[in-house]
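ESCALATION

Customer reports they have been waiting on this structure for their group meeting. Please prioritize. Original submission:
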Amino acid sequence: MIDLTKIVNWKSIVEIIILWAVIYRIFLFLKGTKAVYLLRGIIVLVISLLTFQLLGLPVLTKILTYLFAFFLILVAIIFQPELREGLIRLGRRHIFHIEPQVEEMEQALREIVSSVGVLSRKKIGGLIAIKREIGLKKYIESGVILDAEVSSELIQNIFYPSAPLHDGGVVIEGTRVVAAACLFPLSDSLSIERVLGMRHRAAVGLSEATDSIIIVISEETGIISLAIEGQLTRRLSPNDLFTILKGQLTKTD
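Update from on-call: job pushed to the front of the queue and completed.
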């Protein structure tokens, strides 16, 4: 009889699975941020170090080892805010957090579109950014953290004219309203109509700086607009808006 326990080392398999899961979560956390380029640099250094060791180049190996240690210290100093945020997020939710399912995302989009329709009919201005890949950390930090489930009622209350958070934009990640009263960068594009105000310039500005999708409701006319990749599409109906958002945010592989 063949003893399978001698062929398969179950402890090694468990270790590989755990290591893969941790690396996968790190990639998800850094995906779409400037830190991902830093991670690529670390990977290049590690591969180079292993290559020098295999080729038997002691001088280059020693130099790269010192350089790698210095690089890690420099990373800890430069990216201290990002590391702190990562630890906070790790404490707030499970490390193996699952991304929203298509059905959950569609329901969140219905809530968003419902609120936009109400704001449009009442001619209440609004500015809503929906995160995709690129992180919005610095814009979130400029506002008030909410971390609440997306709902039409919540978004309407935020933009109600006398509400304390109605100025600025709302940031939504997945099915959560992350923050309100956030400051977005203003675009200086000459293609934006002069009749449009600060909300529209902020929407286009954020869409130029990130891959987010930004919804704007005009306070003067109630017109619904959508900014994607620096382009502003105006005069959308709630149905048109939902169709575009669903196509952009619920793509399956």
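Sent to customer with the following note: The chain is about 55% helix and 15% strand.
Escalation resolved.
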